[in-house]
Design a protein that fits this description.
This protein is of the alpha+beta class. The chain has helices at residues 20-27, 44-49; strands at 35-36, 54-55.
């Protein structure tokens, strides 16, 4: 299954673009209430996972 990754127009070193589909496959079956993103950067992972609640 190919996941479409939402990529921001701003490019920066260390973007997790290639990891989003893998991280999404790990996070989807989990029933979590809040996503905590300690190193937000551009917020690419959290933006693509689209959690109900998030702490950046």
């Amino acid at each position: 299954m190919k996941t479409t990754v939402i990529v921001p127009t701003i490019k920066c070193q260390g973007m997790k673009t290639k990891l989003v589909s893998s991280l999404k496959s790990f996070a989807d079956p989990l029933n979590f209430d809040r996503w905590i993103e300690p190193f937000c950067g551009l917020g690419l992972v959290a933006f693509n996972l689209q959690p109900q609640k998030a702490l950046y």
